[in-house]
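Researcher: Let's continue the batch. This sequence belongs to Protein patched, and it's 1319 residues. Same format as the previous ones, please.
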Amino acid sequence: MVAPDSEAPSNPRIATAHETPSAAEARHSADLYVRTSWVDAALALSELEKGNIEGGRTSLWIRAWLQEQLFILGCFLQGDAGKVLFVAILVLSTFCVGLKSAQIHTRVDQLWVQEGGRLEAELKYTAQALGEADSSTHQLVIQTAKDPDVSLLHAGALLEHLKVVSAATRVKIHMYDIEWRLKDLCYSPSIPDFEGYHHIESIIDNVIPCAIITPLDCFWEGSKLLGPEYPIFVPHLKNKLQWTHLNPLEVLEEVKKLKFQFPLSTMEAYMKRAGITSAYMKKPCLDPTDPHCPDTAPNKKSGHIPDVAAELSHGCYGFAAAYMHWPEQLIVGGATRNSTSALRSARALQTVVQLMGEREMYEYWADHYKVHQIGWNQEKAAAVLDAWQRKFAAEVKKMTTSSSVSAAYSFYPFSTSTLNDILGKFSEVSLKNIILGYMFMLIYVAVTLIQWRDPIRSQAGVGIAGVLLLSITVAAGLGFCALLGIPFNASSTQIVPFLALGLGVQDMFLLTHTYVEQAGDVPREERTGLVLKKSGLSVLLASLCNVMAFLAAALLPIPAFRVFCLQAAILLLFNLGSMLLVFPAMISLDLRRRSAARADLLCCLMPESPLPKKKIPERAKSRSGKTDKNNRLDTTRQPLDPDVTGEQPKACCLSVSLTKWVKNQYAPFIMRPAVKVTSMLALIVVILASVWGATKVKDGLDLTDIVPEHTDEREFLTRQEKYFGFYNMYAVTQGDFEYPTNQKLLYEYHDQFVRIPNIIKNDNGGLTKFWLGLFRDWLLDLQDAFDKEVASGCITQEYWCKNATDEGILAYKLMVQTGHVDNPIDKSLINSGHRLVDKDGIINPKAFYNYLSAWATNDALAYGASQGNLKPQPQRWIHSPEDVHLEIKKSSPLIYTQLPFYLSGLSDTDSIKTLIRSVRELCLKYEAKGLPNFPSGIPFLFWEQYLYLRTSLLLALACALGAVFIAVMVLLLNAWAAVLVTLSLATLVLQLLGVMAILGVKLSAMPAVLLVLAVGRGVHFTVHLCLGFVTSIGCKRRRASLALEAVLAPVVHGALAAALAASMLAASEFGFVARLFLRLLLALVVLGLVDGLLFFPIILSILGPAAEVQPLEHPERLSTPSPKSSPVHPRKSSSGSNGGDKSSRTSKTAPRPSGPSLTTITEEPSSWHSSNHSVQSSMQSIVVQPEVVVETTTYNGSDSTSGRSTPTSKSTHTGAVTTTKVTATANIKVEVVTPSDRKSRRSYHYYDRRRDRDDDRDRERDRDRDRDRDRDRERDRDRDRERSRERDRRDRYREERDHRASPRENGRDSGHESDSSRH
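Model: Same format as before. Here are the structure tokens for Protein patched:
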């Protein structure tokens, strides 16, 4: 038995007769009664075993086990909060170091080329054949009129174009102590090799200009761009060589007259095949009054301005007309035509300067003396190219702003290096936006959790600490990703930090909300454990759903998808660890601050607590000192803690206000039948509109979207996309193919591309020749020359004459090639009717690779112009008429060739997708015929992802939704709940697609990532609500209201915090970020709130799953549980008022059968609160009020009473015998011990065992203290006795010394002593 005045925890007790109906109703609406499995699944399981409720045993057992583990974890964290916090900060800081090793991917092939897919295999094959960084670079300039309606097809616009381009191409840079100019970097046509004539080769090399694609090539003014910068002086020639007055044919005739020792016939054939004739001398002048305009110009004498539109129709030709045809679509943009398809007007002009690629430039200069002393390598070549392109762009800007160029026109430069810079900058982490977002998050959390009227119970410090914890957690998670080798990209830097922060803050609000609503009568050492016990499962469920969703989506082979999903999953795992392992330690430290009655944020202050003091009953004033200590004001109580008097302090926490608003207003409102019907109709309309919008979403991502606004680069891309839509394309043929024997298949393959509508045709409506056709034409020319020489007798089977032409001699050498290594020469082929090319146009297959070596070296201009890019490169074999060695080196079999095409009219994603499909079908058709091939070019690299983007997105969403379904199914063991959550998330994704259609956002890689993100973000809007619904008791309508009451405040705060963090993206200099990321993220938050807090609760109230706990007695609450069993402790009997023998005070007494009946059972006077902690920490005692009726008989007038009873009736005296009837009532607090299953106690009553252990430890400590005290007393008594004996010895010694000093006294004393000794 326990004394009536002893303190016991507040527990659900059987109602007292003095309890008011409102108090009973408040007690029965506590979480323990209406959300039993959410608060304490162990209690629900025990009630299920007793038969008081119905429900799922397995789900309750799993939740009870998880709650017990979370409670143990929370108690441990509360006990060692400081150590845990120190270790966590140390570990997280260590992971942050990994950010130094982060790799950022910006190239398209690194982001959107499907791993293991067709395009990746093609890119790998190209890289193996050509090497890395083999592509050429381009420097472009676009001219437009500031008035968009003005046409540029007039001489004035072209002359302004000439000024700008001419100034830009003359820029020079100084790097590595070397001056670099355009001629050192550009791509220029190849020239034949002339062995023994290096000085002439040098002259020709300086004369051959850079390849510049420009509309000026239709006019004489185009020669001003070709140079050379300084005219070349050649002895014996009348004029210096410069393209403004150079007529190649006249120069050749002049050289012939000088009779130089030089193979002029080779040079003449070279010029003839290349179409080099009069160059620019016979082209019209834009300004006939120019003094340098040649007299041979058709409008020089007339002085008429040429018809620019007519001249530009069908394109322009460079100085080598056979190989330099610039299509009209490449140099003129925004064209309009008349009825005869001739140009009428144009809105833009474009010039392209072709530069070498970095690898090509490195190889070109590797053996030159100019770079021997600087350690020439490919990196330095790339640096030189990049620096020159930047200066080119700066010069264009300078010319545009100068007064020398008309203000009516705009010029926009662009280069591939600029594009790479933009993509790299777009993928960089914006520290400014992240810091601003996190700062605003700190302010929002502080304002939300602060309590101005009660600084002790304010939680702003905990919220700020939580946001700082999430910040370092996000950094640590990204560092861990970098250590794992996961690369970063634009989605990693623009989305992931805000995603992790938003989801983490929502979990933090859920924990702080539970901390706020915790009752004040919870034992202080268990408060953190109970916070985790209640909300830890919700945090765990939502986080695991998110992690599984992202990991499932990471199975897709698209690199950008995979990287984003893996990083998001890892960051969510880090957030989960921080919220369950570190943040509770912060709550525990805040609990200590509250216990010390210190103010929030200003811990040095100790303001007065605003909580009203308890009214202590009169009976409680007589309690022991220990009870008085327990009755002190508990500053750790929360704003919702009930007061003994029934008065509650006004809550100044926004979460509490939202909870009350939901309970009193919002939940009853949305549960009205009219509101339900209206909401369901609205949901159906929204779903139908979303389905319609999803079908209207277009694919595509323009480069202008990822370029900062108000920059020249953005303006260039905008106009290039609007006016040109021009791209290069190559059809690549691979190895494992016999080129010599399958030439006919190659021609057929090439001719089939004429059916592709976007490929530019030549003037005859056909395609330009590719390398095999040019190779054949060269051989046919040689065959004709050979036939003429044979007919004239200059060439016979055994020899050739001195007057034979170079072409005839070269043809003779080719004719005698057999193609066999062991017998390479056979002169008998001359007279056997053998031909270099047969009548069907097929090159001799046996000597094919011998002929190829001769063509690639001796017709270099045609070989370069073919853009065949043959790999391996053909062998070098230079023809010399004096060389009588007939063997020609045989080239290696080809493994890579290119067939070039020009594409136009590709202004949108749909047209590009159509082109890709048609080209792919053609390639697959001929691959089935035995020709391994694939297309290559920018359209296939950038836009082929859209062919399978929607399929990949559907698979990713299906994997994510399936993972959420499995997670909810496993943790809740409720299939219908998992189905509802999954359908709700699918609806959210569909609605986001509809919003994309409304906002005009195209479906590309980034929106696809956001759609996958919508699944993870939507989990927080639905899973918490579903968990609250399943674990509540009552009808569906009541359970939906209870679920809303429990989760609305943290969900709303988390969503608003995430929206606030995402709003910082509006400060990005990339308009694409603001238009796409910001709008879609805010739309996701709004849609999630509407779906999760309006539609989903209504659906649950109509179609929701059954409750886990279904009471049998009361439909809407759990019946009052029976008191729990408690151990029987040995008790000491106290002596009565009349005394007793001493031994009875320490003897053990066994419980005796109670004679009196218990007529009234009541509870302790202290009020019972709606504590949400487990019933195991209570239900230990009840109060009984027994009535005892005692009859006493007194003889001979003596009175005798029984016990300490208080007489309440009159006494009757009759003679010598007096009979007295006494009725006594006593308040006795007793322990009721009920049978209990030891296994269930061990599984579900951890903190009871802990309290018992603590009690045993306290008793053991008291016994040790008593033993120590007794030992000290005994030691003191021994010391006192020792001192007394020592004092007695000193006294005796002193007396004996005094006796020896007095003989008489000594004698007398001796006599007495002897007498006494005799006696």
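Researcher: Any comment?
Model: The mean pLDDT is 77.
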